[in-house]
Amino acid sequence: MTPPGRVWRVDPPSIRPAPLAGDLAAEVLVIGAGFAGLAAALELAEAGRSVVLLEAGEIGDGASAASAGQVAPLMYGARRTPEQVAATLGAVRGARLNHRVAASGRWLFDRIAALGIDAQARHGLVAVHRSEASLAAAAGLYAQWEPYGARVERVDRDELRGLVGSDRYAGGYRWVDGGIVDPARLVDGLAFAAARAGAIVHSRSRVTALRRLAAGWEARSAGGGVAARHVIVATGSAGLPAWPALARTVYAAPVAIAATAPLPDHAATLLPRGGPIADLDDKAVFSPAVTADGRLLVSFLMNGLRADLDRAPGPARRRLARAFPGWSQPPFETLSWGRVALTPDGLPRLIRGGEGLVGVTGCNGAGLTLGILAGREAARWAMGTAEGELVLPLSSPKALPLARVLPVLLRNLLVPIANRVGV
Q1: Is the pTM of this model over 0.85?
Q2: Beta bridge partners of 174
């Protein structure tokens, strides 16, 4: 068995905070330094609130820095339509969320530029479709987003040939405000910006206990504690051992990213402009892209828990072979993975854990859009925004049916089936 390589990042982290040592007090404690937690901490610090951010590992550990970095400003994971969102949340709140999701990619690219983060951002995500029937069906879905500000352009077969070196696809739709970033550089940049704005950041500070105080909460780690009036838990599908009910509000599905070494031609025969593309006709996941330094990235649902370079990328190799027959596939150099937090309706969640305690989860595979959006809403909650004004409701920590069993079925039965039939 070949052991998995590191995350495909090539630059060392720019920020390596020390572990918590001693006791601190703050208005808000954020637990988890992925996209959602960093977005929340940055918004709070820039608003002048005292905030402490604790991360169990290093900045971006888990699914955030290990992602493919795709920016998808739509309900990508469950392909939810704006009409379905409104039916779930009500007309007013649903419209608010639809507007925010449609603007999420543009907001992120603007924010990256304003903060001076070298995230190697590239605009434009193309959703590709294999047949005219699929294109026609998708047209209705994408048209629903336009009233909310989404910029979507039809890409016909001839134009698509200049973007994707494959005859498999009948055409696609370009999400102008979508695209790709280097996720490791983005989490580094967000952490640096949060610290610069005044947030106190500590990595290698796993929260082992969380208890209610007379006016707030106290979190303890091996090195000390933090007392805060409000606590935001942004640990994704991992949940928090000190709050076990949180993890059971989502289903965890393993998603992996396989990456080659930098290719001499930057995979120009596959993706002449580097992508990214997303094959939404696939029953699983097929989203190849090329990084700024020429690595081919392929996202896929990972079977079981065998995270090794010999076997795990099998689904990615099969999809590449079907989409680009005759192309001699180079070996994958790195394999990174994480667990995506899924919700039945495809919407992110703000979970109420008690007065002053909220969990952020349910990115549904769109952590750069839905996760960041949810983290920002948690920050607005901590700053006193009325619940009725938030774009996401505060939900009770109700365990999903089969919350303990379904992730096992996903890894060992449902994902392997989807990886086979979806090719």
Answers
A1: yes
A2: 126, 153
